[in-house]
């Protein structure tokens, strides 16, 4: 940590800072410049953070020089991790395709979507039973009934299930059906939920908050990791910007940035980021090429009847091209398409 | 709702749209232009929304022309509302000062802050017992112990309490102590929490999500209102932008914009928006002058020891000027400073 | 300047940095921590900036601790400045009202708007003869003919003229008519134009780029100041954010932030920031209350016929309230309404 | 164009709108709903835009349903265009690599960088002689001397030159040396410059404004096209968002979005978007995979000595991997690497 003193800071101000740092067991190194003095701190960053150094007289700025996350940081875990979901790997050697309907609506629709997913190369099935919706008047999902449909479709297709949980107190219920718990973009700072999924004993897919910085996203992962669960897959799904041509702006650079900061796998959701069917395949290609460890894609047998996000779902006519992408692009990255157990 | 057809849409495409609308009990008015056709829809908007019209062949865009919120809309409730918190009004005739410490730390600190608040003209006491923090390593609040401190200070000062709740399952506990429940910026789309506070029988202060549009904010209020609670005060607290000189960017225009769209009172938080003590008084003056129904301000007897957000808390030396602002500025707006019961 | 070394930086890396700094005539202070080393630099910042220190092996980050602007900085000029435009002051003791039509359209419209402006308390007349427009098909202004109309209206009303210049090579022409040159938001990084207005010998109003940081805005002012012109008034006019309810988001906090960083006067444009007539008066009140040194407002006798930005212009029916605001609000700030020469 | 009337609009209001539209030679189709009336307009959109319809009584909103650009629109030019720069194609059948130093510094550095570019597969040389810089104290480029260096290096290597022009009045000079004129991100709304390059008779590379919407970007291209020049290549180079881990956020979705709206080629700048060397190769792969028609990349023989943007330049050690990407990735897109004339 570095303290930057204001131009008018006095010798007393500087000595006070040094004393406060010493009282927290730290050492302070003072460098005097022509117009400013800077003070480097060595010691326990957490204790320094609690000191409220910015509040001291003469302090202009406090610059943190170490990252605030630990368990998910690559500093302490240089090898990139592989998370395994009922035998299906997500990690640096593979590209994993997760696909399925945005929302579970009926058994027939879910089964049909699962077959579409499998035909394209998917080895994990996505599908929402609990849907967080901006409007209280919109379809909120089938709840436990939806979870049972997913379990039946898993039985029929062999595809493990990834599904969202939106409330800390539903975690046990959802975990009793799901193979991987998804935390959605609107819950990226719902700390009670993060802690609950951290304790649930299942792998977690953590979507980036649509307005979260990369650091906030990793801090959210740290909340999960703190409860003893390091089976976390990060999912970039677009951030909110001023551009209105797409629903959100896919921050594709986040993949290599995060892979450098954290050992956790990172995948991309090309469906929700753009919100447009015509962008899904180009963004899927880009996702693999940038080095993402997988993609999660909406498919729907009849999107014009979908109860949620129909405009972004791939349809049967798109599947051949998706399957081709999943066959050809991983090779160029020296990866293989992830297979089931 | 208006459907804009693509330039190449066929007569069949248009007839399909008309048929789909009719099947939902609506009427479709077709206007053919030189390059495009537009179709106006009359009928039940919720049913139209479920049709997934964007998914139909030949449809380029679907434009919604009515607002998605109802209970909180001013369309259906032209008079602006006053919310009363244990006798203290927040509404169009008054300016209400809510003040207190960001976090409850000790009985002494809380009592001292409450006295500071009262001296400046506050009639409601803010103070956090449950603190949502970006880092799992940061101070998370005293929990129920903090609520008891707040209740004791209410006893000693007569100031009703506004305090945050961060998890749906704490609502009953917090409501048993608090006079007003606060939903914070990170929970602006925590729908389970919004529904729980809607059912708790206490007035609610709903902070704007730091990246919520005004429409999303009003939709969040609608979640609360739907559970039978219209005692909602909206609080603008800054939005996330690219500017880094302030923690967030106070969207002061949101006050008149929201007052035109909704009947609910709107207040401003000048402490959290800027994150800097030197901005609090200027932004407080601006808040009253723009027409806000109140302000909520952090004060702390010893901010250099604060466990949370010390850099933005007003100190004793600022109180005279704050008191002066609260005396003089409401008059210019033909309002009075809100008094206790 | 502070250099933060990467966790894995070697002793050689550190010594290289020290040597490079020494070669530029600077001194380097090395502080070794448990996980990282930081190096404080004392010397000529410009020379350090040219060293490309981030490119050196083992360097993780370079943190600048002094501001990059000098002439416009308050560090070197603690007293706030007053800029005088043909006898009309803009500065810390007054609130100056600048008003007029967005675009000069006809002599009659301009004269009528100028009379409206004067009736409301304006002592400077705004009006655009050169209009930068997003669409090449939109009205681009009357050019020199518009400047002549402004000069005639100045003759008839006594109001000095503020008008925009959009191309470096029009500066001499515009300066031959105008009393103050305006640089618009789209030209905030048109450095050739900034240098030309810096050399023109007339006061300049510099609008903030709609996506400029405060630092970039002050750097743009520095370009003007470098050419010998310190008669610069900064104008906050809203920044681009994700919110769509207003055309831009007025960053009202920028006023006190800039007044702390720079000695230059700062005014607010409540018309262009919101783009809505119903926001102009509330934002004008807020602007004065936050401490702005003036406001610049669109008025139009017949906004429904305006060729540019009619929806935001105040009309005759708004003038009494504007005049009242200009009479009452400056008093509360211990200021007076700026008078003509 | 569609006019949405306010809920309280009267029959008179509606008739006024119809009359105003008729006076502009248009036809108005009125659709009455339960709570609102909408009016569809058929006729000359430019004339409607000049009517200022939002200013009429009872009008709540005016929705434009056709695009404001024409010459660059794909509606009127369904085939995607190929722009040829001294024999080098940029278009739908190829992937073109443009590479070189950010700034021309010396003949030796420029030649060395050009050889690096060529070795990696580049057939066009980039290099800046006029540099727009945020700080007036930063290196501003060598000017004409830099252009002469570029011309010499073209002679020696056979690579045609792409270089930036920053002022309308330098266009003739720069065009006398350059094979392609670049308009930079800070000049994306410098309309005088856009018109000047439109008239210069050379192909133009138009970078997206770092905060321009896609529509504004295409409107800027329309300014160039209007002067008779359709040899325009669009370049996405990252947009400004709240994320600070990268200099800007590469909006990779903009490539397929723009290719659908416009017939112009679109390339990506992976160097300036991220501002980090470690992101350049991953983003280059993603650019080709998403369907970009080319990439423009900074290379520098000694980036630690670069006068501009050294931290993002590729070095000799990166070239083999870049060459491999340029060989392998275009094939997967059924394209070839663009060759020289």
From TrEMBL, chains A, B, C, D:
Judging by the UniProt lineage, the source's domain of life is Bacteria
- Give the organism the record lists: Planotetraspora phitsanulokensis
Domain named DAHP synthetase I/KDSA: residues: 87-333
Q: Which NCBIfam families match?
A: DAHP_synth_Bsub (TIGR01361), PRK08673.1 (NF006421), PRK12595.1 (NF009239)
Asked if the record carries the keyword DNA-binding, the reply is no
Record GO biological process: aromatic amino acid family biosynthetic process
Identification of the protein by name = 3-deoxy-7-phosphoheptulonate synthase
Identify the SUPFAM superfamilies for this entry.
Aldolase
The alphabetical list of record keywords is: Transferase
- Residue span, DAHP synthase ferredoxin-like domain: 1-66
Q: Which Pfam families does this UniProt record tie to the protein?
A: DAHP_snth_FXD, DAHP_synth_1
A GO molecular-function annotation: aldehyde-lyase activity
Q: Which InterPro entries match?
A: Aldolase_TIM (IPR013785), Class-I_DAHP_synthase (IPR052899), DAHP1/KDSA (IPR006218), DAHP_snth_FXD (IPR041071), DAHP_syn_2 (IPR006268)
